[in-house]
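Quick one: structure for this chain?
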Amino acid sequence: MINNKIMKRKIKFLIPIFVILSMFFTTGCAAGNTLSQLANPQAPKTDFLNPEDLQVHFISVGQGDSELIKLPTGENVLIDAGDTKCGDYLVNYIKSQGVEEIDMAIATHPHSDHIGSMRDIIENFKVNHIMMPDFDYDTMTYTNLLYSIEENNVDRIVGKYGDTFEEGEAYFEVLGPVQQYEDANNISLVIMMTYGDNKFLFTGDQEKEAEKDVISMGYNLEADVLKVGHHGSKTSSSQEFLDAVKADIAVIEVGEGNDYGLPKDEVVMRIARSGATVYRTDQSGNIVVSSDGSNLSILTDDSLDSMLNSILEVPGNTSSDTDKLKFIGNKNTKIYHSTDCKSIPAEKNRIEFNSKEQAEKEGYKPHSNCVN
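Got it. Here's what it folds into:
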């Protein structure tokens, strides 16, 4: 059964890592070459991260979801696997992290942008277990996945509310769905992972109706990191749900220039106003959040590219101009930062201000970690 004991959360420091020259190679399944790709054409390496820390990789698979959880004790959990076109990219990415075996794969729901490349995962790694919701779905992608599970002798688990499992020192709880729904999005498995004092909440494509039902169960939903539901669609991330989660970090997995116009501005603003720092794979590429059980660190593709621009003196580099600015706003979150802030937005999302007064007159709020 689920333990309803409320855990006291420690204050954490968000520490983006800007001093690493070896990281990720593309931002999404069909992205072009980036600076990090040119600087390190081989597979991405994260050897520089503390091997005693848990790592959660929000993999940039375009318009889809995929999260790799690496435990310091050697276990690996994969939540979702992007669309069918991402198979090669996803397999190469996971192999590049030194992963050979996946202890638990979780297919949150049967839509192709979440399970499309799960068959590739099963056929390229030893997958011990796969958890799926109790939901029938008549598509070729879903049917092929079921065949692959059977052919490769993967233990299939039907995930239900209240189920728990452990991998290493991480504790996983299934918080949803709490009932059957007709909509496949609402049938998404909602997973809370606890590692020490840190909590990560993964919501698949859960929409407002299912969010409300999860809240009604009375479980403490507070989490340090929220994987935002349904790629930032307005069908998800209700104010009531965000108020219950109280996330410090929110990650939106979404494809650049997607046909759905996601994430919706109103949703990004709602999340930012709830107090979370918003990261997006369409802007930052691959995103890694690591935890020592108390503190969190963030590493993204765009932070590395920004650093490489300066080191390699790429023509057109405007870092010297940025140094002269007093404050930099994020057009998406309406949060403004000092120029030395560790969470400074990507260049394409910046707006420049000469003073706090100017920023706040334009409707921007100060970033809690860098503006006093």
